[in-house]
Amino acid sequence: MSTSTTDEQYVVGVDYGTLSGRAVVVRVRDGAELATAVHDYPHTVMDRELTTGPATGTALPVDWALQVPADYVEVLQVAVPRAIADAGIDVAQVIGIGTDFTACTILPVDAHGTPLSELDRWAERPHAYVKLWRHHAAQRQADRITDLAHVRDEPWIGRYGGRISSEWEFAKMLQVLEEDPAVYAATDRFVEAADWIVWQLCGRYVRNACTAGYKGIYQDGRYPSADFLAALDPGFADVVSTKLEQEIGQLGSPAGRLTAQAAAWTGLPEGIVVAVGNVDAHVTAAAADACAPGQMTAIMGTSTCHVMNSDQLAEVPGMCGVVDGGIVRGLWGYEAGQSGVGDIFGWFVDTSVPADYLARADADGRSVHELLSDLAEAQPVGAHGLVALDWHSGNRSVLVDHELSAVVVGQTLATRPEDTYRALLEATAFGTRTIVEAFEHSGVPVTELVVAGGLLKNRFLMQLYADVTRLPLSTITSTQGPALGSAIHAAVAAGAYPDVPTAGAAMGGRTVAAYRPREEQSRSYDTLFAHYTALHEHFGRPGPGRDILYGLRAIRREALARAGSSPAGSPQPDAPSEPAEPSGSEPYEAYTKVSR
């Protein structure tokens, strides 16, 4: 039965995650989500070996994370038509489509936009494939970029909290140049996947302002100078002019019109508006109606990305970037993040829970996460006697160091699984408080914490975050935050609303102060947080503590290299690029969707 009326308008939002793409059909006047469909990427994440083409089975160095671009097109061919059909609307009433992507997810293409991995000549070369956001094998290059920027006193380095991440564009491009110069030479453009999928939809390559600013060191209308790049490597001097520079599209603007080919893929009308691409975390602020200064949106999944607008420009230590118009026009958009959150909880359940707990959860008809959360919630604050550092995937903010690893202090023979589980939950909350305090100490106040993502279903975790941060915690009303956010941007690009904040107020929403800090618990957490901070500084800053973590990494690499498990000198991750979904973990959808 059709849900359309003749005067309604609709938009489609497509959210590209780490393991799948999700399409949602949204009514323009009020943001009602009429239908959604998900398509899993056939090749998932290639972090052990290539799983496609003539080089299938080729082993990959550790800390690599690759994907196949054809999987992204399949989302358009499968998820979008399915969502349209399930919505029961008249497709002629769809006025636009918007997309978002994980970032920095980057791929080398030829002049026509064809990925090098799809060309026979390059299909056997790992560097010809998409480098997913959590490809961390360019840490050495990122460190050199950071060090040189400080030596030269480059003005842009402060806009990134003083450090450039291995996840970002220039580190990944420099890695290609140094490790496979033939692929580098064959690359006409290094393209963010967010912009590549828009290119496939409308036939125009437009670089979005969000990834250019946060991941591409594009500040005040320019990239790092050719002189700076040449100092990194003479062959890198012209990377901007020959392989990167492109028209910058503002967020919420049209990139072009849907081509006949893309219309055939999606079942959408040819010629509708295609919005400029965006990043999954950043579009979610609009979906949560949280675009005002001081509202920090935390998209909590396998990792957490924190985004916030402000009318003040400041340099915040360890932030992932501050970009003019990076979230909405007219405001400075800030980003920070934690490399591991939900995937830490998933890792613990997968590796560290005894069989009797699994059996108990199964008998109760609930997930192991729910069981452990209930047991942990019954404890008084601090009763487990533990403090943990949430660095199982390194630290994104405020230390920006993926060589760091996790620490748990205080375990005894009396420590139970729920004790450690709670300590890990608390560690991620302490990590968020560390980020919030870094902003506030830099003159960028945070007045409200707005949570989106699968983890908001854990009420104990949400209350814990409110208590630890001492902030009112609001929750997004949509379960499809990024996809709804992309749909909102499509509505603005199609002219249905004048700007993103106005559209977000009409189409998005949040439950304000769903959780409030409790003073008694907050005081107890203040004491634990002081210990977390002491460990954070001891193990995260230069000195004997960090030397221990670095040294253990080095010992592990050498042992694996001797055993033939990985090349000497390649960083070894502490967990697979994407953890297996825990058994019975339906409330934790975020384990199969990463926001970055």
For this entry, give a set of tags:
alpha/beta; Nucleotidyltransferase, domain 5; seven-stranded mixed beta sheet; six-stranded mixed beta sheet
Question: Could you describe the 3D structure shown?
Answer:
- The chain has 596 residues and is α/β, with parallel strands linked by helices.
- Among the domains are: 289-340 and 437-515, ATPase, nucleotide binding domain (Nucleotidyltransferase, domain 5); 342-424 and 522-592, no CATH class.
- The chain has helices at residues 69-87, 139-151, 169-179, 181-186, 193-202, 209-214, 226-232, 239-243, 260-266, 280-287, 342-352, 355-364, 368-377, 417-441, 459-469, 481-493, 500-507, 519-540, 544-563, and strands spanning 10-16, 20-27, 33-40, 66-67, 94-101, 106-109, 130-131, 189-192, 207-208, 248-249, 254-257, 273-275, 295-300, 304-310, 321-324, 332-338, 387-389, 407-409, 448-452, 473-476, 510-515.
- The strands form six sheets. It has a seven-stranded mixed beta sheet with strand order 15-16-14-13-19-20-21, with helices on both faces. Strands 3-2-1-5-12-11 form a six-stranded mixed beta sheet, sandwiched between helices. It has a two-stranded antiparallel sheet with strand order 4-7.
- Helix 1 crosses helix 9 (260-266) and helix 13 crosses helix 14.
- Mean pLDDT is 93; it is low at 566-596.
